[in-house]
Specification:
Helix content is 23%, strand content 26%. A five-stranded antiparallel beta sheet has the order 3-2-1-4-5. With 125 residues, the protein is of the alpha+beta class. The chain has one domain: D-amino Acid Aminotransferase, Chain A, domain 1. It contains three helices and five strands; from the N terminus they run αβββαββα.
Length: 125
């Protein structure tokens, strides 16, 4: 994966909005992995400063627009939309993950029931 450097990640981090069964399940914020002056090959923490996050209405709207652009969205069991702030301070899509092994459930233990519910509903289709 190749991503552009976005200055906004240094100040506001990257927000991960996770959807199950077409509904927002929870959101988390991750701090920048690469910091100025850090050699690219230095060992890094995969998700530094990971914490629960309440998405703003603008973040939710951008994530929902990104998902609406994906063919078959209503049938998706899972999607994660990662957002960063653009130069204008508005949220921008950094990644759209449709297959993701890390759900950050340790930060959101109340979300386990929602994951199970969505998996069972998908299995019955």
């Amino acid at each position: 994966m190749v991503q552009p450097y976005m200055k906004g990640i240094d100040a506001a981090g990257e927000r991960a909005l996770q959807f199950f069964g077409g509904r927002l399940l929870h959101a988390s914020r991750k701090r920048a992995v690469l910091t100025p002056g850090t050699p690219y090959d230095e060992k890094k923490v995969a998700h530094p400063g990971l914490e629960p996050w309440s998405p703003t209405p603008a973040e939710l709207a951008v994530a929902e627009r990104a998902l609406a652009a994906v063919p078959g969205t209503p049938e998706l069991l899972y999607a994660r939309v990662d957002l960063v702030d653009g130069e204008d301070g508005e949220p921008r899509v950094m990644e759209l993950e449709l297959v993701e092994p890390n759900l950050f459930l340790d930060l959101h233990p109340g979300s386990v029931a929602g994951v199970v519910e969505a998996v069972l509903a998908a299995a019955q289709r």
